[in-house]
UniProtKB/TrEMBL annotation:
<dbReference type="InterPro" id="IPR029058">
    <property type="entry name" value="AB_hydrolase_fold"/>
</dbReference>
<comment type="similarity">
    <text>Belongs to the mycobacterial A85 antigen family.</text>
</comment>
<dbReference type="InterPro" id="IPR050583">
    <property type="entry name" value="Mycobacterial_A85_antigen"/>
</dbReference>
<protein>
    <recommendedName>
        <fullName>Acyl-CoA:diacylglycerol acyltransferase</fullName>
        <ecNumber>2.3.1.122</ecNumber>
        <ecNumber>2.3.1.20</ecNumber>
    </recommendedName>
</protein>
<dbReference type="InterPro" id="IPR006311">
    <property type="entry name" value="TAT_signal"/>
</dbReference>
<dbReference type="Pfam" id="PF00756">
    <property type="entry name" value="Esterase"/>
</dbReference>
<keyword id="KW-0012">Acyltransferase</keyword>
<dbReference type="InterPro" id="IPR000801">
    <property type="entry name" value="Esterase-like"/>
</dbReference>
<keyword id="KW-0808">Transferase</keyword>
Length: 330
């Protein structure tokens, strides 16, 4: 569950994952037909194996996909007037953090319906693995765990085909907490024309600093929890090209002309020593990233807040208002 107080998880393996196209698709908006998701049970490499559309706002799907060795799920939070308005909406892809209790339900348990309230935006909350790091791992001993392929090549076009969305650059935002904050920064840089707004809530922005602390964290956590000894970036030798492709501080120009929002905790007492180490690495990496953005003349909004590695509801609501101000209006 997302909490504003210090988290209760204490085991390192349970929290280890928590650090955890060349031009924009401009022009006129491409509007999806918005047919019920059941009308497109197959498509984009996805097959619905479980569904829940009884709640008027929170719809749920579980898919079979060759990209993942089990059936990942997604929650889709609809605006309060979605069924009656006939309007088209911008979309926020909201990525969860790492840990044994983290999955597509994380933000629902954390009160996302109340946080979003009556705002005119669709929020998509997909599975990302306990320690998937929003990537296609270098190696896996448990079958495919290609989260990047699932999210970017399959789920994103499926959402646009089945809901009334602006299927374009100015119609999409991506945000996340911890590992998900890293995923949001990574996806924005690697898929330049997909997201006009990116937000990282306590997500690392620098993979190589401190002797590659975050790369080691990703490798160790994924090997222990999700990949049965496989790794995200390779070990003992890294796939250096893959690290550079995923590393926000090495992709600074990819954030130009986008809305960029970041928040990290200052980790001062009374948070635990583990919280101080975790958020301390996050804060240092975000500061490095912010300095590079400043040097390149790229606008961004950054906050440092008291406390450790936790999701801050007030910062998310501020972030959400900024997203809606940047994206196409419903």
């Amino acid at each position: 569950m997302l909490k504003e107080q210090a988290p209760t998880r204490r085991r390192i393996l349970k929290t280890a994952g928590g650090l955890s196209a060349a031009a924009a698709l401009g022009g006129a908006g491409v509007v999806a037909a918005g047919s019920p998701a059941g009308a497109a049970g197959n498509g984009f490499g996805l097959r619905i194996v479980e569904r829940g559309e009884g709640n008027p706002r929170m719809w749920y799907y579980r898919f079979a996909t060759d990209a993942i060795g089990w059936d990942p799920a997604v929650n889709v939070l609809l605006p309060e007037d979605y069924h009656s308005s006939g309007r088209t909406y911008p979309v926020l892809y909201l990525l969860h953090g790492g840990g044994l209790d983290q999955d597509f339900m994380t933000f629902d348990r954390g009160g996302i319906r109340d946080l979003v309230g009556g705002r005119p935006i669709i929020v998509v909350m997909p599975d990302g693995g306990h320690t998937g790091w929003y990537g296609n791992p270098v190696s896996s001993r448990v079958g495919p765990r290609n989260w990047e392929t699932f999210h970017m090549n399959q789920l994103l076009p499926w959402i646009d085909a089945n809901f009334r969305t602006y299927a374009e650059y100015d119609g999409r935002a991506v945000s996340g907490f911890s590992m998900g904050g890293f995923g949001a920064l990574k996806y924005t840089a690697k898929y330049y024309g997909h997201f006009a707004s990116v937000s990282s809530h306590s997500g690392p922005a620098s993979l190589r600093r401190d002797l590659g602390a975050v790369v080691h964290w990703a490798n160790v956590s994924a090997a222990a929890v999700d990949l049965a000894g496989g790794t995200i970036y390779g070990a003992p030798l890294w796939d250096e090209a893959r690290v550079s492709a995923d590393n926000p501080v090495e992709r600074v120009e990819s954030y130009r002309n986008k809305r960029v929002f970041m928040v990290a905790g200052t980790s001062r007492s009374p948070v635990s020593w583990f919280e101080q180490i975790t958020e301390g690495e996050v804060l240092a990496g975000q500061r490095e990233f912010r300095g590079l953005l400043d040097g390149a003349g790229i606008r961004h909004e950054a906050h440092e807040a008291p406390g450790g590695h936790v999701f801050r509801h007030d910062m998310f609501q501020r972030d959400l208002d900024g997203m809606i101000g940047r994206l196409r209006k419903a």
